[in-house]
């Protein structure tokens, strides 16, 4: 194997010589009309000479191809110097590859701005491979904006291309030593070190081949394939990584799956009990926040009075978090409409002992402009008989729908005009404790009844159409619609929503209860004609399921209020699932889901335009009721098919 690697290295050297020599950085005359990119290619701290380096502009549409801006080779010190013309495409996303033969390809995502002198190594390759995972085919990066440029920016949360080291966000709290993600990241980098240090890449390329997919031709594509199928050959990949330990800290045992989950906490003192997430057209995350920030769980907190707004990399948007607009203790209800306005429903959450009367606030909803300006008055908007509102969604016609958990109704806001809001009494449907809403492709609204164990279908104008009572459904929570018109419902089984007489203390007391009749929490599918599947889909990845999201391939993603895990199920479009899978079958490991010690108790789950899955760390694992809120958003990088945002009905590919 080593002899073959040496022969290929000789071939690479000859290729570099044929291309005009092996230049050292700074050894070429600079042309005044050209830009330059300098850097070094390394494995750990070892320079890699005779690597063929290419600077590329990512393709701007799905199925497109990148454009080569410059080529060159590394010198004996591993350094390279490239000259290129400025890309004509506005906001072009640039990345570098370095090929060494035998399937070795290292890479680094540069993004849309100049990166200066950079390092390309195993860490930058893992960061780029995971971030670009949903846009890579055949070793090429191509896809629509904002997904691709956001992905490049997110890669810089894991690896610093200026130094080749771990990026500050991954290396420090709330990441760093507080979770296992840093160790998993380094272990993946060691997989590439095996490939880069003379052992050859055959084992890596073989183990990274996704089920039903082609074998990757190089190590960069292999990383992307691992990111997209993180449960594939987990133990064997871990064993291979242990043969060449270059980076530390590393995992001591094989993980459940090769996921990389980053925790975001904004400015570090604002996130407390995030309930749900909604993305705007640029991929920024707007987040409902249950409580005012306080770190001490014994310190009583009152309701949150600002909406969080984070960039795709987890930084606050300018001026965020945004106060005002009558916000108080929002829960699961947040949506961004197609004009960019954020709608937040005020449930009145607060910690035990807060002196505020929540009933003065839980009959309103708020709205914010795209720049964070509050559009609603200081008391919020109180039209449409709002009562303890929860799930909030926008449809494609611009209407806003709000589930009123406190009075068995739904409020519909036509064309986003608050004063025209109309309450839809649903007493005749049997709906109790309306919690979440999904809009299907026909504009119909489907509402879960946490207290009535059913789902109610409403016409686009709000007229009740039917009540669906799936067998075994109990305490349903989140709901989402797929592209084929199916509805997917979180069948929680045990948790009562704290409205209509129930409190958060009741919800906390129910955390350790077991479902009756030997049933298990799961997910229920309802077909477009209202016919439920014969039985819920259950597996070990589903523990107190709460939020549900559908990705661009119609895979079903479920947040869990227990178990510290994210679940992925094969949806109704089985052609997009691994070969042989059937609807409802877990794609994530069936015994564990995608586990992460960065998770606590999760409610909202949503998918962004780069294919990242975001979860809301809503409550602590041990939720002391004075201040039970979790303090982060958790982002699983590159695991899902991207979704066009803002979401207004079933998912659409960007």
TrEMBL record:
It comes from the Bacteria. Residues 1-18 form the signal peptide. This is NHL repeat-containing protein. Keywords: Signal. It comes from Streptacidiphilus monticola. SUPFAM superfamilies: NHL repeat. The keyword Signal applies. InterPro entries: 6-blade_b-propeller_TolB-like, TRIM-NHL_E3_ligases.
């Amino acid at each position: 194997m080593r002899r073959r690697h040496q022969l290929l290295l000789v071939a690479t050297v000859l290729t570099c010589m044929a291309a005009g020599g092996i230049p050292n950085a700074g050894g070429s005359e600079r042309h005044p009309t050209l830009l330059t990119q300098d850097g070094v290619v390394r494995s750990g701290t070892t320079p890699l000479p005779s690597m063929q380096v290419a600077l590329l502009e990512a393709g701007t549409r799905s199925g497109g191809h990148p454009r080569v801006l410059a080529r060159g080779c590394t010198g004996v010190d591993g350094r390279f110097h490239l000259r290129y013309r400025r890309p004509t495409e506005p906001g072009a996303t640039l990345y570098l590859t370095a090929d060494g033969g035998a399937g070795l390809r290292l890479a680094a995502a540069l993004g849309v701005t100049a990166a200066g002198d950079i390092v390309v190594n195993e860490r930058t390759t893992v960061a780029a491979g995971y971030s670009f995972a949903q846009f890579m085919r055949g070793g090429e990066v191509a896809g629509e904006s904002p997904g691709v440029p956001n992905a490049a920016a997110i890669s810089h949360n894991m690896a610093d291309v200026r130094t080749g080291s771990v990026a500050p966000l991954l290396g420090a709290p709330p990441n760093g030593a507080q979770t296992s993600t840093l160790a998993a990241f380094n272990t993946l980098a060691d997989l590439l070190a095996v490939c880069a240090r003379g052992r050859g890449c055959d084992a890596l390329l073989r183990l990274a081949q996704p089920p039903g997919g082609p074998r990757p031709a190089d190590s960069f594509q292999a990383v992307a394939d691992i990111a997209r199928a993180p449960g594939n050959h987990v133990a064997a990949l871990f064993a291979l990584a242990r043969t060449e330990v270059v980076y530390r800290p590393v995992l001591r045992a094989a993980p459940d799956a090769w996921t990389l989950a980053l925790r975001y906490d904004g400015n570090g003192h604002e996130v407390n009990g995030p309930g749900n997430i909604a993305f705007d057209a640029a991929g920024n995350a707007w987040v409902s926040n249950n409580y005012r920030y306080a770190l001490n769980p014994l310190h009583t907190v009152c309701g949150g009075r600002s909406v969080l707004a984070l960039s795709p990399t987890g930084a606050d948007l300018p001026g965020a978090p945004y106060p005002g607009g009558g916000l108080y203790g929002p829960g699961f209800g947040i949506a961004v409409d197609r004009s960019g306005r954020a709608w937040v429903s005020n449930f009145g959450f607060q910690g035990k002992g807060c002196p505020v009367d929540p009933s003065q606030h839980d009959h309103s909803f708020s709205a914010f402009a795209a720049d964070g300006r509050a559009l609603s008055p200081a008391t919020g908007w109180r039209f449409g008989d709002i009562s303890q509102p929860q799930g909030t969604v926008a449809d494609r016609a611009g209407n806003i729908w709000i589930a009123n958990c406190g009075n068995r109704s739904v409020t519909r806001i036509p064309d986003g005009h608050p004063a025209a809001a109309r309450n839809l009494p649903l007493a005749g449907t049997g709906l109790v404790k309306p919690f979440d809403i999904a809009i299907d492709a026909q504009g119909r609204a489907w509402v879960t009844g946490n207290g009535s164990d059913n789902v109610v279908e409403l016409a686009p104008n709000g007229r009740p159409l039917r009540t669906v009572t799936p067998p075994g459904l109990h305490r349903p929570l989140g709901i989402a619609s797929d592209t084929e018109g199916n509805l997917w419902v979180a069948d929680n089984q045990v948790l009562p929503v704290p409205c209509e007489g129930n409190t958060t203390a009741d919800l906390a007391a129910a955390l350790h209860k077991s479902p009756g009749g030997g049933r298990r929490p799961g997910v229920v599918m309802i077909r477009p004609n209202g016919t439920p599947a014969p039985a819920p889909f259950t597996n070990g990845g589903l523990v107190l399921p709460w939020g549900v999201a559908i990705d661009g391939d119609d895979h079903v993603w479920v947040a869990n209020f227990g178990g510290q895990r994210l679940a992925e199920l094969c949806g109704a479009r089985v052609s997009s699932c691994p070969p042989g899978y059937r609807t409802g079958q877990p794609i994530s490991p069936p015994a564990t889901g995608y586990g992460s010690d960065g998770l606590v108790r999760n409610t909202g789950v949503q998918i962004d335009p780069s294919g990242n899955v975001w979860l809301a760390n809503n409550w602590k694992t041990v939720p002391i009721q004075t201040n039970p809120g979790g303090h982060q958003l958790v982002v699983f990088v590159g695991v899902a098919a991207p979704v066009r945002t803002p979401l207004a009905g079933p998912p659409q590919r960007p």
